[in-house]
Amino acid sequence: MTKLIHLLTTLAPLLPLTSAQYYRGFNLAATNPSTGACKTEADWLWDFQKMLSLPGGFPYARVYASSDCDTLVNAIPAALSAGVKLLAGVWAEDNAHFEAEKAALLSAVQKYGSSWMLACSVGSEDLYRGDTDPNTLASQIYDVRGMLSANGAAGIEVGHVDTWTAWVDRSNDNVTVASDFIGVDGYPYFQDVSIESSASTFWDSINAVRNVVNEVHSGAWVWVTETGEPVSGPTMGAAVASVENAQTYWSEVACAAFEQVHIFWYVLQDWTASPSFGVLNSDGNTIYNLTC
Q1: How many C-beta atoms lie closer than 10 Å to residue 239's C-beta?
Q2: Is 157 part of the annotated catalytic residue set?
Q3: How far apart are CA 277 and CA 76, in angstroms?
Q4: For residue 38, with 0-12 CB atoms within 10 Å meaning exposed, 13-18 middle and 19 or more buried, which class applies?
Q5: How far apart are CA 20 and CA 135, in angstroms?
Q6: Residue 256 — φ and ψ, nearest 5°?
Q7: What is the pLDDT along the chain (292 residues), one digit of tens a residue?
Q8: What is the pTM for the complete model shown?
Q9: Residue 25: how many CB atoms within 10 A of its CB?
């Protein structure tokens, strides 16, 4: 029996998760799409309750910042009330902003503990934009992880979110090594890909990142932190923004991804943007069928 228990313990990380065990959530902006004003606690609560009411339920949300718009000040009480956990964000593009973000995250952990937090992303697409260098970003990831660990949140995973092209760029390997999780943003639409080829293009990009991660930081999980298809906006090569194509992408990509990867869909609402990726219109109703 002892040998059997040891075998099962060894194999546990290799066993597939059920769909209910994969994180499924939405990206949420800190501003109200109607007014552009920073969201209040009531606004965040509306978002979280709406996510939970959608087919299948979405109990996780990714927020981009900690200090900007008092994101954590207003989002955490709403998340705790709704029973939603947050993938917190810490902007890293300049030192003053980074320190303000760290301070806001520390204040939140000291006030609420860490039960509200699923994980923390240090930076978002910084490597893609060229806003920093890999060594600096890796150091910031270690910095935030150390801060959380020293304040009772040692179990929180700390990683980074960037485009799939940044992760497969081997000059960025130090960031991959530093990250507990690898947050991947991938949009076939921005690769000028037709809807007929979008699903295969998406999975090709995810698998390309996985191949690098398996070599550089074996055991780190690859998360999908942004993907989606716009309901409106300009044509990008063979990529046409439409409700019909957004529906197809959801049916072919989202429904499959929910069964095999942690994923944060882009985005819950953004009806004033162009291109617009939101699944809800200005009335809070779904634009296309989200049932899988």
Answers
A1: 24
A2: no
A3: 25
A4: middle
A5: 36
A6: -75, -40
A7: 333 333 333 333 334 565 669 999 999 999 999 999 999 999 999 999 999 999 999 999 999 999 999 999 999 999 999 999 999 999 999 999 999 999 999 999 999 999 999 999 999 999 999 999 999 999 999 999 999 999 999 999 999 999 999 999 999 999 999 999 999 999 999 999 999 999 999 999 999 999 999 999 999 999 999 999 999 999 999 999 999 999 999 999 999 999 999 999 999 999 999 999 999 999 999 999 999 9
A8: 0.94
A9: 23
**129, 132, 136, 140 alpha-carbon torsion, rounded to 10°:** -60
**Of 99, 101, 215, 226, which residue is the catalytic one?**
226
Point out the catalytic residue in the list 41, 93, 101, 125.
125
Q: Classify strands 117-124 and 85-90 as parallel, antiparallel or unpaired.
A: parallel
**Is 99 considered catalytic here?**
no
Residue 229 neighbours by CB under 8 Å, 6+ apart: 187, 188, 189, 195, 198, 241, 245, 246, 248, 249, 250, 253, 277
